[in-house]
Amino acid sequence: MTFQYDSGATAHLKSSLLEDLPTEATFKFENAMVKINGMFHQPSTVTIITKNHKKTYNFNYKSIGYNYETIHFNELLRQGKTESDIMTFNFSEQLINTLDKVRALINLNY
């Protein structure tokens, strides 16, 4: 699946239940590539690749990724807020609409 953005950026996504995929995220820039290794939503290493150099940074941190959302949600509750400035209701609604369109395209119902 390919997403095109007004800024000119492009995102290519691939998902499968039939094959084992690396679940990594790769960001390509003019002079380098940044690869979030392993499961992109719970990374512990990042590799930066340039034309002449490749280096992996190990953050030695174990997380399933969702702890950040939990911390932020608890902060919102303590502050009496009903919406996040980081993940707004509008953004959440747009994301849900995108996922609904994808499910319709691939005929996924649950």
The percent range for strand residues is 15-25%
Low-confidence stretches: none
CATH topology: Dihydrodipicolinate Reductase, domain 2
How many helices? The count is 2
CATH class: Alpha Beta
What is the number of strand segments? 6
For the biggest β-sheet, the strand order reads 3-4-5-6
What's the helix-strand series? EEEEEEHH
Characterise the protein shown here:
The chain has a single domain (2-105), classed as 2-Layer Sandwich (Dihydrodipicolinate Reductase, domain 2). It is 27% helix and 24% strand. It contains two helices and six strands; from the N terminus they run E-E-E-E-E-E-H-H.
Task: Considering the chains and any ligands shown, give keywords for the structure.
110 residues, alpha+beta, Dihydrodipicolinate Reductase, domain 2, four-stranded antiparallel sheet, two-stranded antiparallel sheet, 6 strands
What's the layout of helices and strands?
Layout: E1 2-4, E2 10-12, E3 25-28, E4 32-36, E5 45-50, E6 54-58, H1 67-79, H2 89-105
Antiparallel strand pairs: 1-2, 3-4, 4-5, 5-6
Can you give me a brief rundown of this structure?
The protein contains two helices and six strands, in the order E-E-E-E-E-E-H-H. It is an alpha+beta fold and 110 residues long.
